[in-house]
Give the backbone structure.
Amino acid sequence: MDKEKIKQACLNIVDKKLENIQKTLDNYKIDLLSEAKSSAGDKHETGRAMLQLEMEKLGQQYQTVLTQKNTIAKINNLTTKVVGVGSLVSVNGNCYFLASSIGRLMVDGVVVMVLSINSPIGKQLLGKKGGDHFWFNEREFVVDQVF
């Protein structure tokens, strides 16, 4: 597995999320301007308030996704022996990439689970080396290899 390809796939997903959030924010700004031209009284004020709340939520989402992007962008392509942020790990034949909570990716025909170190499995994997065992949901897992 190529960590750089996985990293780039993650960045592409995060960039797409940022783009979608920005487009939605831009549309809300247009809607807010058109609401400002309306003079329907209380209904007008309620509509403006709801738009502003939605824009605030989107702004928070944007910051969260931007933090994800920065975390992923800082990952180097070095191989380590101990699992940490940026590690590509084979566990029971499955691939995990510890970067950010993105989920399942398909890279070069291989399914890779992209997880945060704060996820339940991520916490279990931190500090492990090849050959180490751990239990999760009453199942035993073996770290095959750390890339």
Observations:
- The chain has three helices and six strands.
- Residues 130 and 145 are 5 Å apart (CA to CA).
- The longest strand covers residues 139-146.
- The chain has two domains: 3-73, 88-146.
